[in-house]
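ugh finaly. both done.
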Amino acid sequence: MSGIEWTGITWNPVTGCDRISPGCDHCYALTLARRLKAMGQARYQNDGDPRTSGPGFAITCHPGALSLPYRWRAPRLVFVNSMSDLFHARVPEAFIGQVFAVMAATPRHTYQVLTKRPRRAARLAGTLPWPPNVWLGVSVETGRYLWRADHLRAVPAAVRFLSLEPLLGPLTGMDLTGIGWVITGGESGPGYRPPGPAWIRGIRDQCTAAAVPFFFKQWGGLTPKAGGRLLDGRTWDQMPATTTSSHGGTR
């Protein structure tokens, strides 16, 4: 199971990444990879470029992990590559194709793929199957990176979603055309940068006006749960209508 509120389980056929924008500055996956390397975990022994990555965090494909979803009998909501980015330039196209083939062959599961590299996703979209159980999202931390949503709209995913986390600035005037879900939240960990409450409310209000499901993950703090999840006295756990309770999600 996963501790991430908006998914059920994580699946990492690829590990490792590189920082490319401010939202990566305090990357939880990079910190976790360093710890797993020190513990001797075999999947995290390849070191990345110290300027953009770190110990145990080089891009590494794990063909042995491709069989895992076949062994899950019950339907699951699956976050793909919580420890990487499937569309990183150093993930071979052939391996991306293998990941998509597994997702297409296991329609009982719903897969959530999240990237900061939507240009490559859009470029490869025509070479990949896009079954209805595959969602694609992009991370956007400030208005400077809203262009990622434009490339996302070029991809024929069943659900296109935005992960506005860690939110580092206001996102007024977002174009939610073609977007089926929005997640937002604050940063956690040492040196966390708290979001402005008006930024969160503004996103919620834009989603409400556009009838786009809105999920508020956390305010953030030294730990993910430090600031709680309440926004104006309630939790916001809206999910796309294609998600069923059998996946551990809510409508």
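ok and the 2nd:
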Amino acid sequence: MSTFQLIQTQARKLAAGQLLAATDCLSLGSRAAIDQALYRMVKSGQLVRVSRGLYALEHPAHAQALAAALADKKGGLSVKKTTSPRKMALAKTAHGRVLLDLWARGEKTLTRTEIKIATADWTPQDIDAYLSLLPAWLRVALLQCHAKAKSVQLGLAGAYSWSNPQPRDELLIAKVLDQHRFEDMVRVCAHFGVPKVRRVFRQRVYEPMPRASVSRMLGNIAKGLKLSQQEAYAQS
């Protein structure tokens, strides 16, 4: 049996309120395999993470119950712990328990890749339902992981931000200028303004012919956008 299956079998034997420690599973596989198995079980709703390295079949309803279980695991030491209302609310649903596990990993150790994998099939509505329960750092990271690529938001034809969905404006403009697709240059000029695009252009290094071509296109785009604005003003 795999480490995951062995831990799954052990977890099914837990009584209500009983805790399973990661250290209880050391004989079942490597620490990496154990951590991965426990993470998968939390994500799928089979376990709830109640404290660092401690898991249960269901989240304790009261802080006193958690304190008693933790004290038992730690050799009878007196433990005082309070569970925040936000964490208790998250613990009630499968998605919430996934977020609890991400939260517990901490801002310094959690990666964007882990967030993307854990929430890959979530809808915008799923995300919105939990934002108010999350700490600011996790809320921002979750939104950034699910944000549409900036190039998609602008309707650009080229794949300018496949490796970085949210590049700095100047970097995206530079990439569009380097490719100098006319329709994409029109879109970035309309969105960021011709002056800003020209500032980025002046900082780029091109061969004489490409530079002349891009300069000419920017001039035509500027004239076209100005004419469009004048026509819109006249019709208003």
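summary for the 2nd one i guess: Strands lie at 19-21, 48-51, 54-56.
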